Amino acid sequence: MLFNQVRLQLGLSLFFCIKAIANDYDYIFAADTWPPYYGPKLNNGGFLAEIIQEAYQLQGKKVFVVFTSWKRALELSKKGKYQALFGAYPVPEREPYFQYTSAICNSRMYLFSKRSKAYEMSTLKDLGKLRVGVVRGYFYSKPFNQAHFVNKQEALSDMVNIKLLIHDRIDLIVMDDRVLKYYINTAYPSFSDQYIQHALVISDDTVHLAISKAIPNTQQLYQEFEQGFTKMKAQGRLEAIMQAHGFDLPNDSR
Fold this sequence. Notes:
Elements: H1 2-22, E1 27-31, H2 47-57, E2 63-67, H3 70-78, E3 84-88, E4 98-100, E5 105-114, E6 131-135, H4 142-145, E7 151-155, H5 158-166, E8 172-176, H6 177-187, E9 195-212, H7 218-235, H8 237-244
Parallel strand pairs: 1-2, 1-3, 6-7, 6-8
Antiparallel strand pairs: 3-9, 4-9, 5-8, 5-9
Helix pairs in contact: 2-7
Pfam families: SBP_bac_3
InterPro entries: Solute-binding_3/MltF_N (IPR001638)
Protein name: Solute-binding protein family 3/N-terminal domain-containing protein
């Protein structure tokens, strides 16, 4: 009972906090933590967050980002509790709920394992009974998500999967290569020469802002982003932001 009361109080506190924030911002968007694309501890919220916020700023609008779990960000954005969702792949199953903006950048996912493990694979069938770490609720690719013969082990985050890989609790992880390199460089530098990236590409997708169709002004938010984004491209701002965060052009997947 006490736990439920505390949880209720925390929920109410968060609700009123967000309501107060809404008075100072035009829009509230949701995101999980997906560095180096976006995250609460990154400079300017990460390069994707900076691009999105600046696109709206050029249209005279201020955006506040609520960082939460992916599942919560997705579900509450579907319902219009948040007006848009960061970092969405253009998944057809989500089209009834979201309008996707133009592609902001690319994301490419690979399989990673310990260097000491001599796994060879050219197709998903080659994974056999190997334990493959994935994040609960993530869409990777249609072939991978529908490959029920793959022994997928769900975790709450990419960070958890890296820990599980280091401690041999899983054999492989599926992850965006930028994200893995960020976590290795910042949290596990001693592991930097102990993993390998396999050639098999699990997904190669564009990354978008997904605007909720449950809000009355979906088209307004869409047009504001597109117009601001077009201005940024013309001004060379995309390249400048990416380079400031240590990356090349927006569509260059490392």
